[in-house]
Amino acid sequence: xxxxxxxxxxxxxxxxxxxxxxxxxxxxxxxxxxxxxxxxxxxxxxxxxxxxxxxxxxxxxxxxxxxxxxxxxxxxxxxxxxxxxxxxxxxxxxxxxxxxxxx
Length: 103
Known about the structure:
Distance between the termini: 20 Å
Strand content: 15-25%
Structural class: alpha+beta
Order of helices and strands: EEHEEEH
Helix content: 10-25%
């Protein structure tokens, strides 16, 4: 996973500082959390789309603390849900099915 994958992520309010329940290490900001933690093992994606209590789409991000414990924090979704954003996702999916290289 590259740092590029985390560009534009904004933590939900009141999520930081974040403390590891296993070793007690504290991450003061979302930038520290993303930079000072490690990728999940076995190349698994750190992202999971979810909904908050109000039905708003959020992005759960899973990272490993330096002690090895898996941590999760919630961020605002970056997905463009406008009609244009949906059209781009549909075009991308069709290109993948057709075996084309998406733009």
